[in-house]
Amino acid sequence: MRRNWSWAVNGAIGIVLAGLLFFEFVAPYCVQPGLDLTFLDGRPSRDEVVSRFGEPQEQIGPGGRFRMTGWRPLPEREAEYGGMAFQRPNSDKIYVFFSADGRVASFEVARS
After folding, report:
1. Angle, alpha carbons 89-86-38 (nearest 5°)
2. Which residues contact 96 (CB under 8 A, 6 or more apart)?
């Protein structure tokens, strides 16, 4: 009887540790960046982007360029209608360029 309980307790501890591993390491580093890129591929509006990523680290207007901050590659092009740069914790930096209608025109991903 005692042996059966130890298997149950060890199984429960294993499940808790696997959940912690997934939610603390796998999801932020692997799953979330993929979900973010899929979201941006759908050409969301500027407001939808801000509501998903929060306040941008950097914001540029028409004709502006992003500043070099150690994240490579830095987008070479100028923003036609504006752009924003976002960085989630434990993730890459995403540079987003907007079109005339306020939707995502393109985006680039940079790594430090």
Report:
1. 90
2. 40, 49, 83, 84, 85, 86, 104, 106, 107
DSSP state of 89: T
> What is the tens place of the pLDDT at every residue in 75-110?
888 999 999 999 877 678 999 999 999 999 999 998
CB distance 112 to 52 below 8 Å: no
Provide CB contacts within 8 A for 29, sequence distance 6+.
90, 91
pLDDT one-digit tens code per residue, 44-58: 999 999 999 999 999
Q: What is the pTM of this model?
A: 0.79
Structure tokens at 39: 């979201």
Q: Please enumerate in sequence order all residues whose Cβ is within 8 A of that of 103, keeping only pairs 6 or more positions apart, or say none.
A: 43, 44, 45, 46
Instruction: Give SS3 for 64.
Output: coil
Cα three-residue angle 82-43-102, rounded to 5 degrees = 35
